[in-house]
Amino acid sequence: MKILVPTPLRQYAGKQAAVDVPAGTVGEALNALTSAYPDLRKHLYNDQGELRAFVNVYLNDEDVRYLQKEQTAVKDGDTLSIVPSIAGGGD
Amino acid sequence: MAGIAEKVASLNNDEILRYSRHLIMPEVGMEGQLKLKQARVLCIGAGGLGSPLALYLTAAGVGTLGIVDFDVVDFTNLQRQIIHGTGDVGRKKLDSASDTLRGINPNVEIRKFDTRLSSANALALFREFDIIVDGTDNFPTRYLVNDACVLTGKPNVYGSIFRFEGQASVFATKQGPCYRCLYPEPPPPGLVPSCAEGGVLGILPGLVGVIQATETIKLILGSGEPLIGRLLLVDALSMRFRELKLRKNPHCPVCGTHPTVTELIDYNQFCGIRGEEAPAPTAMTDITVEELKKRLDRRDDLFVLDVREPHEYQICNLGGHLIPLNDLPKRVNELDSSREIVVHCKTGGRSAKAADFLRQSGFTKVHNLTGGINAWAERIDPKVPKY
Fold first, then answer.
1. Is residue B75 scored above 90 in pLDDT?
2. Is some CB atom of chain B closer than 8 A to the CB atom of A79?
């Protein structure tokens, strides 16, 4: 499946905008991503290993918090989007 | 917008001519144009997002446009803040913006609020308007705007940008989610760079600000499908627009069924910022640009480490050894811990992090250059460009 990496996190993902990973669930997909790019881990997870509150993960257009969270099943052709909060307003 | 249509208003012949292209469309028409004329919109910030949205709302004939801003126009604003011109540098953004807006449409009442939006003034201010448009540039004000909108029952037309990506939505309507439903908590300070640190493509606030203006006008007209319960993602580089579903969180601390936030709080504290003390106190290990100049002139053995990005090094440099902050952990072996190291970046933020990292890695003679290369440009060598 495809994971879309947002601009602020691309610097930790080899400057890529999208990464393809093999996965059966959302958790596996994120795990594959952070295994390939360990620097991403601390930006996505807190010290307790939970997804950070300011990082939202969407499977296609649905927030995984309203699906089965990291246990949500995924299939080929799905897109996972990481959507962190940004605050810029152009000063 | 309940109640607005009850007030008596009309358009004079000049206004009818001015708004002709609205009036001949059934979706706006005379009724819609009168709704616009009676609407009161408050724009938070007259910067990147505030520029295009204030221009279009004024041109469209919104009756009252309030603007909250306390900043002054500088040269780095002009690449995207199209409400201000070169001759406005040094003026208050409020004055510059209101001059431009009056030139576009003198029928609009521009209300200037020369203040920093705060927990002390937000509720009273918001009550005087129908719709709030958030064009701010920091997390504490974003949460403040959201909570004050929920508490006063005013829609929050949201837009946010970073480099070439933007987000837009309409929050805090009765039926829809609020900003806290989307992001219950802010990121820790320093983790997400601002436009000043991360840069922004000049047209991006134009794209996103115009989306905000569009949503504001739709809310006033009560027509179309507003961006309620939807987060629009804009990627200007790939020119793709995507849409994500947003849900109202029943457990939301401010708009949920059992809210715990029932009055405005200290948003700096909420976002982990210690108010006015936020900039790190000058430590013994900091060095000023004057001190660095003196020591370089004296030919002291100093190793200058530049932790900016290569494209910034091309703009200007002090001849230092370039290792971008993010590469420092894997390239630390390029440094000699027996030498005295002066670390610098653009303004001192990234170099402070780099200096902390080096000290934790066992370097004992590390100085952070206060104010970075911009301070050097300002106070030591005017030939070095400030950016």
1. yes
2. no
Query: What is the distance in angstroms between the Cα of B283 and the nearest Cα belonging to chain A?
Result: 28
Say yes or no for a CB contact (<8 Å) between B192 and A53. Answer: no
- Which chain B residues are within 8 Å of A39, Cβ to Cβ? 326
Interchain contact, A88 vs B244, CB within 8 Å: no
- Flag whether residue A45 sits within 8 Å of chain B, measured between CB atoms: no
What pLDDT band is residue B7 in, cutting at 50, 70 and 90?
A: low
pLDDT value, residue B188:
80
Domain of residue B329, CATH code: 3.40.250.10
Assigned domain for B318 exists:
yes
Interface check A15 vs B, CB under 8 A: no
pLDDT of residue A83: 93
Confidence check: pLDDT of B277 > 50: no
Give the DSSP per-residue string, B55-120. Answer: HHHHHHT-SEEEEE---B--GGGTTT-TTS-GGGTTSBHHHHHHHHHHHH-TTSEEEEE-S---TT
Residue B278 clears pLDDT 50, i.e. is over it: no
Q: Are B358 and B330 in contact (CB under 8 A)?
A: no
Q: What is the ipTM of this complex?
A: 0.91
Percent above pLDDT 90 for chain A: 68
**Of B137, B11, B8, B4, the residue nearest B68 (C-alpha):** B137
B305 in any annotated domain = yes
Same domain (yes/no): B290, B273: no
Positions of B annotated as catalytic residues are: 195, 345
Note whether A50 contacts B: Cβ–Cβ < 8 A.
Answer: no
Q: Which helix (H) or strand (E) holds B219?
A: helix B204-221
Tell me the nearest-neighbour CA distance from B343 into chain A, angstroms: 21
Spell out the CATH class of A2-84. alpha beta
pTM of the model: 0.85
Residues B137, A91: C-beta atoms closer than 8 Å: yes
| Domain span including residue B61 | 39-277
Q: Tell whether B103 and B167 lie within a shared domain.
A: yes
Average pLDDT over residues B184-199: 79
